[in-house]
Design brief:
By secondary structure, this protein is an alpha/beta fold. It is built from 8 helices and 17 strands. InterPro entries: FAD/NAD-bd_sf (IPR036188), FAD/NAD-binding_dom (IPR023753), Ferredoxin-NADP_redctase_2 (IPR050097).
């Protein structure tokens, strides 16, 4: 059994930023790394502060891991399979059978993207031909032919957002007809709407060619998936933590969940799914965790 001041569940930008802060607060920190964080899918980010030339997701993660390790954090591969109350703290069961007791826990478990059911979609995401965040990289869609795949009005809203950058936006609605209610608004914006499942997708010469409706071929420079996400909030749910309507965790201004001793940061918390936001939330959470531990030790100043 390993005992630490702070257990961080998740080794994406949120978890690694918190690890650096807590280690610099001279806390014993263990990061449980389940592997393949969402940020690793980023081909090149051009809106990461401080990197005007762009930076890959893997490079972001490797630099953040190096920084956390430099100050003494421990990063252990493997997912946390269960999290339970243990006195004033918690006990976590890891995938390798190990057990960790922690006085405080930060959940930085993120979300799972609902990718379109397309052959080779992972490779297309890696090549930035299929994208999942117009806030991150909508600028790169400027004046390009863009398709948005959606199954509800979320797809309509994303298509409308992308009209900021291009007047060649098509919404491919793959859900029930009744789930798309914004047809008139889309028409007013000049957004073409195609209501059909996508049957076949080919990637040729850095363009996505979808062969999907009545034998018609349509070529796009970029395809955005607006199919939503599912939060990785099961550990918190088992502790009866309060959830938002979308299933993500509700937290206060210090990133505290409704469970004492349990904090959360990053995409698993409702809000804007951005690395800059995740790391800021982690800074807030880690500082509050450290101060809470000080108070628990009887330090009142």
């Amino acid at each position: 059994m390993t005992t630490v001041d702070a257990l961080i569940v998740g080794a994406g930008p949120a978890g690694l930023a918190a690890a650096t802060y807590l280690a610099r607060f001279r806390r014993s920190v263990l990061v449980a790394d389940a592997g393949a964080p969402r940020a690793s899918w980023i081909p090149v980010s051009h809106n990461m502060p401080g990197f005007p030339e762009g930076i890959t997701g893997d490079h972001i993660l490797s630099r953040m891991r190096e920084q956390a390790l430099e100050y003494g954090a421990t990063i252990r591969p493997g997912a946390v399979q269960a999290l339970a109350r243990h006195g004033e703290g918690f006990t976590a069961t890891l995938a390798d059978g190990g057990t960790v007791t922690a006085r405080a826990v930060l959940l930085a478990t993120g979300v799972v993207d609902h990718h379109p059911n397309l052959p080779g979609v992972e490779r297309a995401v890696e090549r930035a031909l299929v994208r999942i965040c117009p806030i991150c990289d909508g600028y790169e869609a400027t004046d390009k032919a863009v398709a948005v795949i959606g199954h509800s009005d979320k797809g309509a809203h994303e298509a409308a957002f992308l009209r900021t950058y291009s007047d060649r936006v098509t919404l491919i609605h793959v859900g029930p007809p009744g789930d798309l209610t914004e047809r008139a608004a889309l028409a007013e914006l000049g957004i073409d709407v195609v209501e059909t499942p996508i049957q076949t997708v080919h990637i040729e010469n850095d363009r996505v060619i979808a062969l999907c409706w009545n034998g018609e071929d349509r070529a796009f420079d970029l395809v955005y998936s607006a199919l939503g996400t599912s939060p990785n909030a099961e550990l918190a749910q088992a502790l009866d933590a309060r959830l938002a309507d979308d299933g993500r965790l509700q937290v206060d201004l210090h990133q505290r969940t409704s469970v004492p001793g349990l904090w959360a940061a990053g995409d698993v918390v409702r809000g804007l799914n951005q690395i800059a936001v995740a790391t800021a939330e982690s800074a807030v959470a880690a500082t509050d965790m450290h101060n809470a531990l000080r108070r628990a030790d009887g330090l009142t100043l």
